[in-house]
Amino acid sequence: VIDPETSPKILVATVTGKCRNILLAERTALNTLSRASGVATASNRAATIKKDNSWHGYIAGTRKTTPGFRIVEKYSMIVGGVATHRLDLSQMVMLKDNHIWSAGNITEAVRLARSAAGFSMKIEVECQSVEEAIEASAAGADIVMLDNFTAETIHSAAAAVKAVHPSVMIEASGGITEANMAHYMGPHVDILSTSSFTQGYDCLDFSLKLNKRS
Q1: From CA 188, how far away is CA 56, in angstroms rounded?
Q2: R_g of the chain, CA atoms, integer Å
Q3: pLDDT tens digits in sequence order for the chain, 214 residues long
Q4: 3-state DSSP call for residue 176?
Q5: What gap in Å lies between CA 93 and CA 75, rounded to an integer?
Q6: Is 74 an active-site residue?
Q7: How far, in Å, CA of 196 to CA of 188, rounded?
Q8: Which of 9, 18, 51, 64 does the annotation list as catalytic?
Q9: Is the pTM of this model over 0.85?
């Protein structure tokens, strides 16, 4: 039994059942809890940064999740207070460089995506410049991702796109970490996405102890 007055450990759950069954599931359960808590903790730190800066936008994860563990990691982001971005590929069309190159240009890629997805699905386009972002917005993109812009260049670029297409959402992505994300928060940026929640996160330490039989 953990005494909260004398032990640094915290009791987070009590499990009951047959001893054999508990020990069979122990390591899988602890590994899952450890990793999920790591994602949620990192997400919560980012959510706190957003709150401290009174920023209006969304902080989101990316699709760079652990194979087979995506649902757990995405749920952990929600618990931590950030957005999942797309939960899976069915939730939004995202046109990246390979999609654009295969279609020929941004305008044609958006046209083809809209013809397949219909009016109810949002379309996001990854852009490397202000000119590409304006083209994507003009073609009908709902969200434009300004990819790999620095904290010094993102705000003027976002403002330039919004000046022409004020209703489009601007996402900043690439190189955003807990250490620098506050510098990307501004009035013209609506979304910050980072893979740091699910790549290289710190796991929390959990253990399971049985009550000693008297």
Answers
A1: 10
A2: 22
A3: 566 677 778 888 899 999 999 999 999 999 999 999 999 999 999 999 999 999 999 999 998 999 999 999 999 999 999 999 998 888 999 999 999 999 999 999 999 999 999 999 999 999 999 999 999 999 999 999 999 999 999 999 999 999 999 999 999 999 999 999 999 999 999 999 999 999 888 899 999 988 887 6
A4: coil
A5: 21
A6: no
A7: 23
A8: 64
A9: yes
